[in-house]
Design brief:
Chain A is α+β, with helices and mostly antiparallel strands. In chain A, 47% of the residues lie in helices and 14% in strands. Chain A folds into 2 domains: 59 residues, no CATH class; 231 residues, Cytochrome-c3 Hydrogenase, chain B, CATH 1.10.645. Chain A is globular. Chain C is α/β, with parallel strands linked by helices. Classes of the chains: A alpha+beta, B alpha+beta, C alpha/beta.
């Protein structure tokens, strides 16, 4: 063996995997995606493997690129909202809220109290829906199908409520600049209350079904470990960051809306089943966040006030010249809008800091040395939505 | 320099005999807990799905589905086409002659323009609902009709002045 | 806070020439010289006072009137709970002569994808980037879409962009045709520019 290697001009052609020396040209190139159930959309990961061990993983993005930022430069400020919806289509309400906050802060619009409560409530409901989606698809990634169906049953109730409020099931256009589109009725509030009760029961059950299952723990514990320094270095946010044990939540640390009035905890990963920052910790953080969201929704239901749901906004919105960077905590991490306005009817430049785009950038760092099946678990635990990665 | 890749493996304690049995026990136990939950769903939870072609779901009243313009009440104000973010509404209107008979919409607004073209390219429409909110006479509405798949792009263009579309007016608009 | 950061940058990197701007509306920002971005980034990350440990986003904005491209580095500190917009201005250059700036991947690895996106969208070359490729558009794409003077290429790999049979000219020119047959002052139509059918695709 040694002689063979000496024949090479450089040693750069050789890669040492564990205790084995492998020629780089012997590695098998495998395309995972763009249509692969485990990549949650149209992500293509080009992986180079030696049998089961991944030597390199290169994500190829852009299959869902719609140049939304360019579109926004030609749309009036209200017309941007439907486009913003289409970024993270699993958490449209949170996307809209972030955008509306950006414009409101620039305009100095005062949002009525009732609208604030409704916004907080639907954003938290959206967080539950989004995390339920994660729960279901992650179970599918790891080979369990029925949790997906259970999660969708509960998600369906949230979607039905949103459909009644806004008229659409996925792309709502509900949170408007200055308030929300429609008022919520007492009957619907009652239903939200019942849903909270049911969801709390169900989620405990679901956690027993998947999270505590020994096989699931075996697949996720000690897999895809992200240390604290690595998480900072890659600018990770959201549950992925908190899974690494960093207590950072914008709702708590830089409160927007009326989050400073609510009492809730920020769950962080504790390394209960393995090393701190592994896939199981990220799963755990999301499940605990559902319980925290239920807490916030209950406080919203207690505190909601009567009144209008739309503030005073002029018919044609003209944002004063200047720029602003607004961050909100979305189900998948920190969503930032960087708006540069020249005082006209359309944004001069609207840049979206998408949490998934940053989170997916850690894949090439995590993948080398992993098994292919573990890579699937890692991608699943980062929970990306390609609509937002590619925008 | 050759590239060295550490295998991503966390040092785990050596698998002893008791640990092995504990693993097996935990595996079986947690699986049975899971199976118990699944069995509950099999026997105790009623099906939540509906059998679509036979049973059709009624959408909520303000559902944003197929667009309909009641051209008789339209005053050709062009507000919907301005609000539309994807520019899929085409309107052309002609000023009414001064001596022409006065006509009004249902809510009493005078119609000063004769509508010559009101076409929505629903293949482009993104169903955001912005056009319906700005409509002053509320003639442009989203209906709850959701079964309108078409074979060609041309069929997705709705000319609301054409007789075939006027024909399904009674089905959608409840006076 | 902004002034403190500016003083700090100026004391650590004198060549940076940092200037703080606090507008009436919106967020303030610090502008530094483009040549010193790497030193400034290092200084901000390693300062015990500010500890900008997270690079949130790199935004590129095109200003054709000033013939400049503005890069905004949005930095945040998760430990000190701070936020900073750091700006550099570069000459705009043209297609064959893209503006250059030092890459900050060695400081924050989050910059890897952000710089690739900035290169792809706005056309700024990052010197010292380990993997300098396009990220959202295909590798052989022409032009940088977020520049204000960007025009979509007409044919890409044999595929015609906006082919004539897909543009809805019939409805589009309805108003124009009507104006030819009758008094154009009487006709009102929703499309302001009658000749520009390429707007909708």
């Amino acid at each position: 063996m040694a002689n063979q290697h000496d024949n090479h001009e450089t040693n750069e052609d050789v890669i040492i995997l564990g205790d084995q020396e492998v020629l780089k040209s012997d590695l098998l190139t495998l395309n995972m995606g763009p249509q692969h159930p485990a990549t949650h959309g149209v992500l293509r990961v080009e992986i180079k493997t030696d049998s089961e061990i991944v030597a390199e993983a290169i994500p190829h993005l852009g299959y869902l690129h719609r140049c939304m930022e360019k579109h926004c430069e030609h749309l009036d400020y209200r017309g941007v909202i439907p486009f913003v919806d289409r970024m993270d289509y699993l958490a449209s309400m949170s996307m809209e809220w972030g955008y509306a906050l950006t414009i409101e802060k620039m305009l100095g619009t005062e949002v009525p109290r009732r609208a604030q409560y409704i916004r907080t409530m639907i954003a938290e409901l959206q967080r539950i829906a989004s995390h339920l989606m994660f729960y279901g698809t992650y179970a599918i990634d790891l080979g369990a199908f029925s949790p997906f169906l259970y999660a969708f049953q509960d998600r369906e109730e949230i979607l039905r409520l949103f459909e009644e409020l806004s008229g659409a099931r996925l792309l709502y256009n509900y949170v408007w600049i200055g308030g929300v589109w429609n008022d919520i009725s007492d009957e619907q509030l009652k239903r939200v209350e019942n849903f909270c009760y049911k969801m709390e029961e169900n989620m405990k059950k679901y956690d027993d079904l998947v999270g505590q299952n020994h096989i699931f723990v075996g697949r996720t514990a000690n897999v895809g470990v992200i240390s604290k320094d690595l998480a900072y270095d890659f600018g990770l946010t959201g549950p992925v960051l908190r899974g690494s044990g960093i207590k950072w939540d914008l709702r708590k640390d830089r409160p927007y809306g009326i989050y400073n009035e609510f009492d809730f905890d920020v769950p962080v990963g504790q390394g209960l089943k393995g090393q701190l920052g592994d896939c199981w910790d990220r799963y755990y953080v999301r499940v605990q966040e559902i319980f925290e969201s239920i807490k916030i929704i209950r406080q919203c239901l207690d505190g909601i006030e009567a009144g209008p749901v739309m503030g005073k906004v002029s018919k044609i919105i003209k944002v004063p010249a200047g720029e602003i960077y607004m961050r909100t905590e979305c189900p998948r991490g920190e969503l930032g809008y960087h708006l540069i306005s020249d005082g006209g009817k359309t944004p001069y430049r609207l840049k979206v800091k998408s949490p998934c785009f940053t989170n997916v950038s850690i894949l090439p760092e995590l993948a080398p040395g992993q098994m292919v099946a573990d890579l699937v678990a890692t991608i699943g635990s980062i929970d990306i939505v390609l609509g937002e990665v590619d925008r | 320099m050759s590239q060295t890749l550490e295998l991503k493996k966390v040092e785990e304690p050596e698998l002893t005999f008791t640990q092995w049995w504990k693993n097996v026990y935990l595996g079986i136990k947690t699986t049975f807990i899971g199976l118990k939950i699944t069995m509950k769903y099999v026997w105790a939870v009623k099906p939540v799905t509906i059998e679509y072609p036979e049973v059709r779901e009624e959408l909520p009243a303000n559902s944003r589905s197929r667009l309909f313009n009641d051209a008789e009440n339209c005053i050709s104000c062009l507000q919907c086409s301005v609000a539309c973010p994807v520019d899929c509404i085409y309107i052309t209107a002609v000023k009414r002659d001064a001596d022409a008979p006065k006509i009004k919409t249902k809510d009493g607004t005078a119609i000063k323009l004769d509508l010559k073209q009101y076409t929505i390219d629903t293949a482009l429409c993104c169903y955001c609902g912005l056009c319906t909110t700005v409509c002053p006479t509320e003639c442009l509405t989203h209906t709850t009709d959701y079964e309108y798949a078409q074979y060609t792009l041309a069929a997705m263009k709705y000319d609301y002045l054409a007789p075939d579309i006027r024909a399904w007016r009674h089905r959608i608009v409840k006076d | 806070m902004l002034n403190q950061i500016t003083d700090y940058i100026n004391s650590k990197v004198p060549s940076a020439n940092a200037v703080a701007t606090t507008p009436e509306k919106g967020d303030g920002f610090v502008t530094v010289k483009a040549e010193s971005i790497l030193e400034v980034a290092n200084a901000l990350k390693n300062s015990s006072e500010f500890e900008m440990n997270v690079l949130q986003v790199i935004t590129g904005t095109d200003y054709p009137a000033a013939s400049e491209i503005e890069l905004t580095y949005v930095l945040a500190s998760f430990t000190k709970n701070l936020e900073l917009l750091l700006k550099v201005r570069l000459p705009r250059g043209d297609k064959n002569n893209l503006p250059k700036i030092n890459s900050v991947v060695s400081v924050w690895r989050a910059a890897n994808y952000q710089e690739r996106e900035a290169f792809d969208m706005i056309g700024v070359t990052f010197v010292g980037h380990p993997d300098h490729r396009r990220i959202l558009t295909p590798d052989d794409w022409d032009g940088h879409p977020l520049r204000k003077d960007y025009v979509v290429q007409e044919v890409y790999r044999g595929m015609v962009v906006n082919p004539a049979h897909k543009v809805n000219t019939e409805d589009h020119f309805f108003g124009k045709k009507l104006k030819e047959t009758m008094d154009p002052k009487k006709v009102v139509n929703s499309w302001k520019s009658d000749d520009d059918a390429s707007v909708e695709a």
